[in-house]
Design goal:
Elements lengths: L1 E7 L5 H14 L7 E7 L6 H10 L3 E4 L1 H7 L8 H7 L4 H10 L4 E8 L3 E7 L4
Parallel strand pairs: 1-2, 2-3
Antiparallel strand pairs: 1-5, 4-5
Helix pairs in contact: 1-2, 3-5
């Protein structure tokens, strides 16, 4: 099971998220069929772009709560001072992916960046 975790700015567009998720899968040489969910922080629950991107990808959108993000954050490899200032998390995309992929999940691809969007892939055991 592979989960794409995302972080995005307020004004990001769904097509940018989709494009970056597809680029992440290509960089990781991961099959599209293995992607099981798109994960975003719960503080983005009101943002349209993650919902629209999940729908375009045919995936469920998992909104990850603050406690789960913070629990996963020590396993993240990317540390962004800008993300930390803006969200209180040093790696939103990696933390979301790791939390959504479950206990014992590992990063398949550390955070990559696009236009107003970040994406990371985590792999976990199938539920």
């Amino acid at each position: 099971m592979i989960v794409a975790g995302i972080g995005c700015r307020q004004n990001c567009h769904a097509d940018e998220i989709v494009r970056l998720v597809e680029a992440a899968l290509a960089q990781a040489s991961a099959p599209r069929a293995a992607l099981t969910a798109l994960a975003a922080p719960a503080f983005k629950a009101d943002a349209e772009a993650p919902r629209e991107a999940a729908a375009a990808l045919g995936l469920p959108l998992l909104l990850i709560g603050d406690a789960d993000l913070r629990s996963a954050e020590p396993r993240a490899v990317t540390k962004s001072a800008a993300a930390l200032r803006a969200t209180g998390l040093a790696s939103v995309a990696e933390s979301a992916a790791l939390a959504a992929a479950g206990a014992g999940a590992t990063l398949l691809l550390p955070r990559i960046t696009g236009r107003g969007v970040t994406c990371a892939l985590a792999e976990g055991a199938a539920p």
